[in-house]
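Re: How this chain folds, sequence and tokenised backbone to follow
Notation: Tokens come from a learned vocabulary of local backbone shapes, not from coordinates.
Start of record: The labelled sequence and token lines come straight after this line.
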Amino acid sequence: MGKKNKFLSWLGFGKSDKAQQEAEREAQLAKEQAEREEAERQAQQAKEAAERAEAERQAQLVKEQAEREEAEREAQLAKEAAEREEAERQAQLAKEAAEREEAERQAQLAKEQAEREEAERQAQLVKEQAERAEAERQAQLAKEQAEREEAERQAQLLKEQAEREEAERQAQLVKEQAERAEAERQAQLAKEAAEREEAERQAQLAKEAAERAEAERQAQLAKEAAERAEAERQAQLAKEAAERAEAERQAQLAKEAAERAEAERQAQLAKEAAEREEAERQAQLAKEAAEREEAERQAQLAKEAAERAEAERQAQQAKEAAEQAEAERQAQEKPKKEGFFSRLKKGLLKTKANIGSGFASIFKGKKIDDELFEDLETQLLTADIGVETTMKLIDNLTDAADRKQLKDGEALYDLMKKEMSEILKTAEQPLEIPSDKKPYVILMVGVNGVGKTTTIGKLAKQFQSEGKSVMLAAGDTFRAAAVEQLQVWGERNSIPVIAQHTGADSASVVFDAFQAAKARNVDVLIADTAGRLQNKDNLMQELEKIARVMKKLDPDAPHEVMLTIDAGTGQNAISQVKLFNQAVGLTGITLTKLDGTAKGGVIFSVADQFKVPIRYIGVGEGIDDLRTFKSDDFIEALFSQE
């Protein structure tokens, strides 16, 4: 065991330091979470107060507007009545003048026209009667028109009020969209360096401490310059006596600042040594990623030789198996559909090269000694099982080996298979959809490119085949063609998709979909979300907003928050699980693309470090290649020698 302890000391993974570092890291995470929660609570209280004040102000405005409009309507009615009365009076005067003129004109005519005039007078009386009747009818029509106009005006007022509220909501949505677009634009700009940043993320922790110290030193120098400038400006404004006093005070301040600067410089020199030690300690944490990346880089270089040897051997075995399977498939007249267990074994071929059956060469024909444990430890780290889980496995195997007095490496191989099976067994918990939850809401989250949308399509098809009604919410409104991609899945399986235009507010889309699913009595609602980096707080807060919006319709929603992670990301998946879990509280994990990576060992780290169930695994492109996670089948396929 001496070599093992020396190897672990060289890596810097002392158990006491590690426990202290983990405790400090957990305390810091808890503190940051508490601060975020307190800030959110304060912001929520302020928001609610602002909303109440805004609602009261809007109600007052509506009331005042209604009063003004009512007064204007009354004035308009009075004005119209006065105008009608004046018009009637003028008409009557004109009519009387006309009648007088007509009477005088008719009187000048011959008396023979008297009877005609009498007839015309009678006709005029009839006409006046008809005009009055017509006027009354017109007045009645005008009254009915006025009532219709009043009703339309009231409807218009309600419509305008609704439009104003909708405009305000749209403005708020636009504002939030703009903020999100800006945040995502910043994220897009940052995305170009995202892969490098992730590789350097752990090293960046150490670098940030040095940069903060340098920033503080620069800020102190800037502060000293600002203080000297302020001293000169104040000295210029002050009197000659005050200038001398101020100059002496500023000189004293400058002296003190210089002394502080000198002290800080000396402290900085000392700190550089301390920071180097701290950086080395932090670098040990960073080395979990850095060494993995370096190991991957070195392994990649080494793999040109090692993988040519190991991969060629595995590839040869895989090739022979594939050729045999292909030959059998070609030989059959009616090929049978390949079972999932067979596809699982085939999908895990790359992962098996590093773990599972790939361990056979390490254990076969060897005795149990320090060299065996060192080789095993190296293989586990190379397979991306992670330092913490690797140490746990090594310790358990070491204790078991001492306790059981195992004779050779092959016995230890069987014991290791059992230990790894126990790790995965804790994460085996299939997703069960209760019948009393309608709709049962599944919120899909994850970073860009892990296969969320494809996973949604496969899940929807599976639920549909189980006789459940399904609806999809196209909440990824940022990525180009994301909405269309989900709609294609919906059309392919005759599943309704609730969507808005690209760039719309994700929370609004999910809210609309939730309402539609409730109205249609849908069994399962699956909500897609935009991919986001787990280290971007503003984007993570948007996920929290979506969850809060859902709770307005159902306090228990979302019922399942499922994180999709790409097995090919290796230990970066650990960071994703941790930060997404802090943001929205994960209840399930789907691990995709196990068929395309040799880093499938990350599943053991996820199962070991988190209590989040692994719901599904994906080992291929087909719909049937996404299946419920069963630890026994996974271990059996991984350790299969076929």
About this structure: The two ends are 34 Å apart (CA to CA). Residues 6-11, 331-337 have pLDDT under 50 and may be disordered.
